[in-house]
Amino acid sequence: MALTLGIDMAVRTAHQATLARDGVTVWRGRKFWTRPPDLERLWADLEVPDPSELTVVIEPTRNAWIVVAEWFRRRGARVVMVPTTQSADLRKYYSKHTKNDRIDSELLARLPLLHPEGLREYSGQGPADALRRLVKQRSTMVKRRVAVYARLDALVELLGPSWHAVLGSNYGIAALEFLARYADPNAVIRLGQARLSRFLIARSRGAWREDHAAGLIAAATETLTLWGHEGMDFAELAVDIAHEAEQALFLTRQIKQIDERVANLYADTDPHGIVASAPGVGPVISAVIAGRIGDPHRFTSLAAIRAYTGLVPKVSQSGVSKVESSITKAGDPLLREMLCMAADAARKIDPQIAAKYQRLMAGDRHHDSAICHLATLMITRIATCMRTNQPYALRDVDGTPITEDEGRAIIKQRYQPQPRHRDNIRHKRMRDRRKQAADEESQKSPSAPTSQPANTQPTSTQVA
């Protein structure tokens, strides 16, 4: 006897559950909340003699499903998940013109019979896992800080180019501390070189000294000369710059704290450093791969892991024709981004990856497309190492073990991409785009306006 409980999860309203026995509905539309009394009442209504015979099917909805899944898993039930896209397609087949929570829960209860291969066993805590959650939070903060830097660049440009020449464009702690207090050129000149030097030495730990202070005073003097006495309200501009600089300082401190937590969590997750042993994988990328993949054994195969990254191509096959278009992008976007960064760095260390990159580029392939292929190869190797608990072995194309320095030397000698060949590919692609644009221009309606000059000559002879 197979019991299946389909639960349509909600976030702010009550969930709905449907129980099926061997595909036949026992009861449907039972509402409950994520509260201990409601869950205990639902468990009593199931009347399950053996909890291992119960399969709970859940469609992931934000993070509301994790608490319910953990509750049933602790009771001994088997918890499986179904991708939202597959459940939506099956719902259209089951009920084309109606969608409600009762139908959704009944569909989920029948899914083990309708589409058993589409179910995924629930293992681990998913978004509740600390490392998985933390690497995503770090990525969000880094992107937010990049946006703040862009706005800060735009505001500092109003002061003149000399400020960027002295402060730089990477905006370290000393530069941000300075902009948060002394972005007004009048305040910089009033401060004086001696006090400004002491301020910079304290904030930069001695890296910036009297020469930087003199450069900032010269930049402030140049700004006043460029704008004149009444050209700009520098006090208001300094307030705007201070707001952006303080945001950047706050985000920088938060990212530093997160990096320390990520390092500790990664050490607990991967104590032998299996992921970090891969070429091109640093502390940040290794933590992202380990956190976003989680347990590699939860995937049925290496192909499933590749599909999870979204780096596999879309396939359209009919008869003897088969078309592979762009990648699906259906997986984890953060994992996909980090894998592409790791692949771009690994092609400069691993001769096997560099040889494949050279073959791809020799076939007139775009650099980004080649990197996607290399990222797929990278995740396959890293996942294999995680499954077998063995570190990544760097080898030459003939299988000889080598070091990273030897790998760089081999790549520089054999697999260095030819700049002229890449330029030829780039120019050929640009010519094809111009030709395509010209063809589209020629297919426009004759009455449409064109970029050609108007013909002012008469088209017919006038009769007096």
Which of globular, elongated, flat, extended, rod-shaped describes the shape?
globular
Count of DSSP H/I helices: 18
Number of domain units: 3
Average pLDDT for all residues: 86
Low-confidence stretches are none
- Approximately what portion of the residues adopt beta-strand conformation? 5-15%
Helix and strand composition category: alpha/beta
Describe the structure.
Residues 444-464 have a biased composition (Polar residues). InterPro entries: Transp_IS110-like_N, Transpos_IS110, Transposase_20. This is IS110 family transposase. It comes from Ammonicoccus fulvus. Residues 423-434 have a biased composition (Basic residues). 57% of the residues lie in helices and 10% in strands. The protein has helices at residues 36-46, 64-74, 84-94, 101-114, 130-156, 161-167, 173-181, 185-191, 193-204, 210-227, 234-269, 283-293, 302-309, 333-346, 351-362, 367-388, 404-414, 419-442; strands at residues 3-8, 15-21, 24-32, 54-58, 78-81, 120-121, 313-318, 321-327. It folds into 3 domains: 3-122, YqgF/RNase H-like domain (Nucleotidyltransferase, domain 5), CATH 3.30.420.140; 134-262, no CATH class; 276-414, no CATH class. Helix 6 (161-167) runs antiparallel to helix 10 and helix 12 crosses helix 14. The chain is built from 18 helices and 8 strands. It has a 6-stranded mixed β-sheet with strand order 3-2-1-4-5-6. A two-stranded antiparallel sheet has the order 7-8. 28% of the residues are buried. By secondary structure, the chain is α/β, with parallel strands linked by helices. The protein is globular. A hairpin with a 6-residue loop joins strand 1 (3-8) and strand 2.
